[in-house]
Amino acid sequence: MERHKEKMEMLTFKADVKDIDSGEFFVTLNNKDAEEMGLLEHDRVKVSKEGKSITAIVQKSMSLVKPHNVTILTRGAMALDVKNGDDVLISPTGKPRSVGIIKAKMDGKTLTSEEMRIVVNDIVERRLSYIELTAYVVANYINGMNMQEIKDLTLAMVETGETIDFATGPIFDFHSVGGSPGNKVTLIVVPIIMAAGLIIPKTSSRAISSACGTADILETICNVTLSTEEIKSITQKIGGTIAWGGGVELAPADDLIIHVEYPLGIDPYGQLLASVMAKKKAVGANYMLLDIPMGPGTKVPDEKLARRYARDFIELGEMLGIKVECAITYGGQPVGHGIGPAIEAREALAILEGSTTPNSVVMKSTHLAGIILEMAGLTNRGQEMAMDILRSGKALEKFRLILKHQCWISITGRIFEPAWT
Amino acid sequence: MERHKEKMEMLTFKADVKDIDSGEFFVTLNNKDAEEMGLLEHDRVKVSKEGKSITAIVQKSMSLVKPHNVTILTRGAMALDVKNGDDVLISPTGKPRSVGIIKAKMDGKTLTSEEMRIVVNDIVERRLSYIELTAYVVANYINGMNMQEIKDLTLAMVETGETIDFATGPIFDFHSVGGSPGNKVTLIVVPIIMAAGLIIPKTSSRAISSACGTADILETICNVTLSTEEIKSITQKIGGTIAWGGGVELAPADDLIIHVEYPLGIDPYGQLLASVMAKKKAVGANYMLLDIPMGPGTKVPDEKLARRYARDFIELGEMLGIKVECAITYGGQPVGHGIGPAIEAREALAILEGSTTPNSVVMKSTHLAGIILEMAGLTNRGQEMAMDILRSGKALEKFRLILKHQCWISITGRIFEPAWT
Fold first, then answer.
1. For A282-332, what is each residue's pLDDT tens digit?
2. Chain B window 259-288: which residues touch A at a Cβ cutoff of 8 Å?
3. What does the DSSP assignment read for B59-104?
4. Contacts of A71 in chain B (CB under 8 A)
5. Among B19, B74, B130, beta carbon nearest to A130
6. Is the CB of residue B131 less than 8 Å away from at least one CB of chain A?
7. Domains, chain B, ranges and CATH?
8. Which pLDDT score is estimated for A190?
């Protein structure tokens, strides 16, 4: 950083926008300009235009970029609202503060709330290169995080993203640790909860390690990409949603962190807890049920690990003001018959429409929904109540409302008549 | 990897060479081509042309790259000898084997010789993304390496680089841990050793943490960028060289690893040992003297650490067949008066020409040179012998030969007459 001190001026460059997406914010400067500004490769610059600014990592080129020009890739250009030929201002900027904090984490130190906030903020503002972001993730993976750090990480992820504030409450939520094939229960659990008059703004993920996630299943029959505004208004109107979590900016740090976890095949335990709970906290959940599918071949092979998950989620929930209950379910074989988005959607729909098979799906769905109904204090025989709601057709009604409100067809004003009814 | 299996075909693309250097091997494909080949961002492809091939990381673009075209950056284009408009073959390739090995290292496992060889080979072949390379470096930093791993790493780094095989021996070498300002002693030590009739093909580094490295100092008066062939032939002719280590491909894995260590400000201990010794092993050193400048503000603040360095370097040397001796010197204040490349070159030269000041530089140089003379069995009063050689002007003679042979002036055939004689 020292070497930048003498040359902190801000210079004007002509933008050359290139449609490449490399994940990071890169800008390419002519070697001569870079030298004059005292910039080496991998140094950072602040690029700004009319009040908007990004921090980008410098690449250099002798011939591709003319002096006083700068190449900006798609992602950066969109963030700055810059078009080809526009003028942008560039000034050198030092290393972000979080680099020293990441070093401390590598050295085995425990991070403070403030340090965690700085790191997460730099991640979301894309001030960290992949090298630095990877160092953070690997340090967390190897050295671990204590509960206070996990709580701080969760809150920092909530603070740096969008949140939904429902005027009424309480808000219920449901999450499955996943890793168990055929797990289409969310499509049945959520409408049962809604039919009981409870509020459940559920966000779901796409496939990570299994054949498909809830978002993939539901997407075969309706739109799942909702904005936070849409999740809020649909939930206020009908009591719930099943949206794709990646389509909203709830805890955006998480998506960026996953980007480096995925190629390494690691999912640091503390990060996993924080990821799940940040998204629950962001929608203002007061109660949450965690489904932990346990069994050979799942993420949770044995009861010892299942109990650790349960204990830690409950403890973290308490620290965040969310009452968590956990259901350890058997995940050693597929739930139901179908595996794959379309076939799982059909299976879930048939059950909502009255089918009593596959029994495993009916039993698991009503079991889980029953726990939530009990958490809400509506009954102390949850599964029975859930079964009654399912058999009455009221869950089907709620599911159809979900389809109607989430489908683009509804947006066009046309009456929604799914082809399969 | 699974998903590539069905689509392992090799397709022809027209190369669009872009002069950008981003450190990694990147290629950009049109979204449509990438989709057809089952490629996601950050997947790897093998790019080949007439027998040459590289492994590159995929970026995608909707508009910048036309279908059946591929953008290749400078570094990749040079490696493949590809020009704009040339045809290249591209086929998907799975994750390199080292990714699983790096995961094992993160999990605290000890790597085998074979695993270390696979990792270093993938680094040198640039098969690893920065994410993966960073994970390797951070895992080594946090979990450490045992001596066997350090030995395996050293040998793997030697194997993947160039080596110099001198027909005669023994070969002597000298290394300073560095971090002590004003440390121009190499410029005096090496010619003294050469004047004693010993062989010392010394490679030196540029500044990392201090104002200048030996290569920076010598470069103010002569060329230091030599090929391995040049180091070999000059050494065979005059007994030694002082070349820039970064100019040759001795242990190239090291340079790539430094690229991710530098922005994080870490230098894993085992990596440091392996880096130094790999370069010594690559020039076939039989004897090596290690100077460990100790004192506040240096890399080695106290005697405990100095002794650890000494012990570990000696042990690693034994494992590699290099006899190592260590001199713990006082590094708490600058050696001599001048700090900075040109002024340090002048100071060293003045001493070679007969100046007895600064006394600290004269004493340190002859002390270190003396140890090497004793290691060679030429005397048991090394410092006295070194002082005699220095005073006799024979070291100056050797230094002038170094200048003559390394300078581009000598290559042109013109008589070398430095301006300052």
1. 999 999 999 998 988 788 889 999 999 999 999 999 999 999 999 998 887
2. 260, 263-266
3. EEESSSS-TTEEEEEHHHHHHHT--TT-EEEEEEE---THHHHHHH
4. 20
5. B130
6. yes
7. 2-93 (2.40.40.20), 98-144 (no CATH), 172-250+261-411 (3.40.1030.10)
8. 96
